Amino acid sequence: MTAQQTVGMRTLVIGAGEAGRALVRDLQRDARHGLRPVALLDDDPAKRHVAGLDVLGGLDDTAAVVLKHRIQVVVVAIPGLAPRRFRQVALAAEACGASVRHLPSYVAALRRDVVGGDLDAVDVRRLTGRGAIAVTRPGTGAVIAGRRVLVTGAGGSIGSELCRQVRRLQPSRLFLLDHDESHLQRLGLDLYGSALHGDDIVISDIRDRARIDQVFAELRPDVVFHAAAHKHLPLLERHPCEGVKSNVTGTDNVVRAALAVRAERFVLISTDKAADPVSVLGATKRLAELIVQDRAGASTVLTSVRFGNVLGSRGSLLTVLAEQLGSGRAVTVTHPDVARFFMTVSEAVGLVLEAARMARGGEVFVLDMGEQVRILDLVRTVAQALHVPDPEIEFTGLQAGEKLRETLFAEHEVHLPTRHPRIHAAAPTSRDEVATALGCLPALYAAADTNDRAEVRRLLARMLPGFPAQAQVRERTQEGERARVVPG
């Protein structure tokens, strides 16, 4: 395989007929499409190899192949595929975290110079019932083109998609920063065909202030997207000091470094759990938002983007559900009524890029994400897509820090319209509230550095009214459900 063929998202082609073969050859010849075919599926057992790639099974094997081979994109290249069969394949792929595109007409593709122009997206909104949301608008790329862009947490799901979309907007340089070298290597291979792409790939930990200062002084980015964070809610309840070190101290370090080099724009990736937070994840991300607001007003435009759960990301709910259903194990759901907001990775990144363009400083942008989806309903939809008629469901009880339903805005936050019809903003918190919260940062950092979990929770509760000083988890007993305090 040539270096060019190693570039792009791992792609599974559905259909080994004339259209599929031509598509594979075109994608292998031209890496500009951003798709790297790694295998095919076809119901004809006589078709075993195409253009050096294996045909790994029939269309019913879509979910298994996507999971086993870490497929990122599935392209359906059977023009005459029946709509019902197409939906089965698309839902199976989407349930496992892959995006789906289809080649509606091979004849039409032959009339175009770029075969990618006919690859129409099919997204996970079919699973969640969400309507189409156009996030980015013409002109969004103006804040990226010709500029030096740095993405922290570049190897993560949001960070890597940011890198892919930013790269297409033609920055003068794109710097990928992460502390996990394996994630960086994988992203480097996807983007460039090599993990050794000059000085653009940077191993660095956002907790290390001196190292971050050094990196920013050397690279002098114009635009910074800060996606690096600890994001696993249950684990952070057990390890709150680590949440503070990464999500608060780390953000503080990156903001300071961006201001020191007079970056033009800084965008923090936040979460809906920061609205009236009751979890360590939400509390630390809310403090990160307040740090961004507090530093706004300088030459650097600083803003935050808050959104819900991301589908298709590494370890996302759909991937976990697909793995549980595929293994025959019981599907674990915390509560029959638990519900969440959902969006696709590409949609989330589109919002981030649009926010970078609209930002004036200090805002928290929030996408209109529609109605929350009940997890139990989502399980049944995914099970249907994977042909599991009656999945066994085990209710485990709400975990520490988990809400039954999320909110996008805190109760006291004022909703403000923006120039984008589907994006709102939370009015900045009063300066007095910000000062009260951030005045405890030195004490919080000291408690985290000494790994004093109880003191970290006590300080978070003092800084953010409503945050519980002690974590509670609902657990099942023979007598029913009860609350248990998780040791600090």
TrEMBL record:
InterPro entries: NAD(P)-bd_dom_sf (IPR036291), Polysac_CapD-like (IPR003869), Polysaccharide_Synthase-Rel (IPR051203). CDD domains: UDP_invert_4-6DH_SDR_e. It holds the Pfam family CoA_binding_3. Residues 149-426 form the Polysaccharide biosynthesis protein CapD-like domain. It comes from the Bacteria. Belongs to the polysaccharide synthase family. This is Polysaccharide biosynthesis protein. It comes from Streptomyces griseosporeus. The lineage of its organism: Bacteria, Bacillati, Actinomycetota, Actinomycetes, Kitasatosporales.
